[in-house]
Amino acid sequence: MSLTRRETEVLGLLMQGHTNKKIAQRLNISDFTVRDHVSSLLAKHGVENRMMLIIVVSRMGKG
């Protein structure tokens, strides 16, 4: 599956346990933009929530 550079950055910070607000601050983007990236990541990985995303990505060896 192909992720954008920004999705990869957001995913990395999600894997570290950061909130959307903290991710937005770290990447200098809006909370809404982070939310959109997280939604895209959920859809691409076929999961419904952040916890499942973290589990799936960890099992894939990307975390």
TrEMBL record:
One of its GO terms (molecular function) is DNA binding. InterPro entries: Sig_transdc_resp-reg_C-effctor (IPR016032), Tscrpt_reg_LuxR_C (IPR000792), WH-like_DNA-bd_sf (IPR036388). It comes from the Bacteria. Coiled coil: none annotated. It holds the Pfam family GerE. GO terms for biological process: regulation of DNA-templated transcription. Keywords: DNA-binding, Transcription, Transcription regulation. Transmembrane segments: none annotated. Residues 1-61 form the HTH luxR-type domain. PANTHER family: DNA-BINDING TRANSCRIPTIONAL ACTIVATOR DEVR_DOSR (PTHR44688:SF16). This is Response regulator transcription factor. It comes from Pseudomonas fragi.
